[in-house]
Amino acid sequence: MKLKNNRDAAIAAIPETKEAAQKLTDICHGLAHTAGWWHDLETNKPTTRPVPELLCLIHSEISEALEGYRKDLMDDKLPHRKMLEVELADAVIRIFDMAGGLDMDIAGALAEKLAYNTDREDHKLEKRTATGGKRI
User: Are the CB atoms for 38 and 49 separated by under 8 Å?
Assistant: First the structure.
């Protein structure tokens, strides 16, 4: 299904997007949990992680993506890929892991936000190109 430049198809795919996002949440958090990222290193007991720490880790991946973009670098771990896309993937992984670890419904929020944005006036091309429109 082609979604680019097809608003109706994209809107129809929102429920599938929620399902896919929930699967990503389960996978990303499951792998991180299995690797011990949600366990105390001294006791090996499950623990919660501080939200500021998790947000900083997401931010660090975005900063690394920016650096890769600025320098037009290939990734050092996946050398056939640009650093920009690999670091963005790392940020997405961290976001879905955080959502799973904190029992957040990121999948539902994503689907609802996509639906909400389809009718936002400031997201319509004619409004964006108008004087004072949202350009960045």
Answer: yes
DSSP state, 21? H
CA distance 26 to 105: 11
- Number of neighbours of residue 31 by Cβ within 10 angstroms: 14
CA R_g for the chain: 18
Is the pLDDT score of 1 beyond 60? Answer: no
Dihedral pair phi/psi, residue 122, rounded to 5°: -75, 0
* CB-CB contact of 42 with 116 (8 Å): no
Q: Give the C-alpha separation, 59 to 64, whole Å.
A: 9
Q: What is the pLDDT of residues 37-70, one digit of tens each?
A: 999 999 999 999 999 999 999 999 999 999 999 9
- How many CA atoms does the CB half-sphere of 103 hold within 13 Å? 1
CA distances from 17 to 21, 46, 89, 108 (A): 6, 30, 17, 9
Residues whose CB is less than 8 angstroms from the CB of residue 127 and which lie 6 or more positions away in sequence, other chains included: 121, 133, 134
